[in-house]
Design brief:
Radius of gyration: 16 Å
CATH superfamily: YjbQ-like
Low-confidence stretches: none
Strand content: 35-45%
Largest sheet: 5 strands, antiparallel
CATH architecture: Sandwich
Shape: elongated
């Protein structure tokens, strides 16, 4: 068994949910792990990682609508130093999470047929995002 670690730097994405499965698989290709486990950890408090529908883009739109309704830009938030979208972004990030653990089989993420890894970008102008990838396998 080998342990590998790298950091994937993603470009800026617009606010919403974005499938990043291919970017992750490309980042782990050099390690040639055929069987193992991957942990993904996003190093930000206003973005998140999750797994969901990878085909129909309306799911990502509905996810964005739901979370905006749940944690919208309220006037009573105290933490507004970085803008009115900052505190709602922290709430969404806490609800969805910062890390995922996924099996790796045949050198690829062993996701279900309709599953993809989502980056939840919860800021209007979040900037580039970093994901620490830790891979353990053979």
């Amino acid at each position: 068994m080998q342990l590998y670690q790298t950091t994937l730097k993603l470009p800026s994405f617009s606010r919403g949910f974005h499938i990043i499965t291919k970017e992750i698989e490309k980042a782990i290709e050099p390690f040639s792990v055929t069987t193992g486990v991957i942990n993904l950890f996003i190093q930000h408090t206003s973005a998140s990682l999750s797994i969901n529908e990878n085909v129909d883009p309306s799911v990502r739109e509905d996810m964005e609508s739901f979370f905006n309704e749940l944690a919208d830009e309220k006037t009573h938030y105290i933490h507004t130093y970085e803008g009115s979208d900052d505190m709602p972004a922290h709430i969404k990030s806490s609800l969805l999470g910062h890390s995922l653990t996924i099996p790796v089989t045949g050198g690829r993420l062993n996701l279900g047929t309709w599953q993809g890894v989502y980056l939840g970008e919860h800021r209007d102008f979040g900037g580039s995002r970093k994901i620490v990838i830790t891979l353990y396998g053979v």
